[in-house]
Amino acid sequence: MVRTNPFKRLRIKADIESIQEAKDALQISQSMLYGIESGKKVPGRDLCLAMAKIYKCTIEEVYKAVEHNKKAGKVS
Question: What span, in angstroms and rounded, lies between the C-alpha atoms of 76 and 71?
Fold first, then answer.
């Protein structure tokens, strides 16, 4: 079973299918969004707030995704 990164799950749940659409809405680079979704980069506070708004979820859900990646050892 392949597990999807929690950030990608939040994006897809918000009916934002493409990386292009998400990065444009969040006003970040494609490489930054790929890094977050792959678990190699951690979004800062302002980006977490923007993600919660764009992905139509709570800030707590975004912070849970950050914590998930940290526990998985993907980010330091």
Answer: 9
The residue extents of the domains of the chain are 6-71
30: which residues sit within 8 A by CB, 6+ positions away?
A: 19, 20, 23
CB atoms within 10 A of CB 23: 18
Answer for the pair 15, 30: CB distance below 8 angstroms, yes or no: no
Mean pLDDT for the stretch of residues 7-14: 94
**Number of Cβ atoms within 10 Å of the Cβ of 46:** 8
> The pTM is what?
0.87
CATH of 6-71, one of 1.10.510.10, 3.40.50.150, 1.10.260.40, 3.40.1400.10: 1.10.260.40
pLDDT at position 11 over 90 = yes
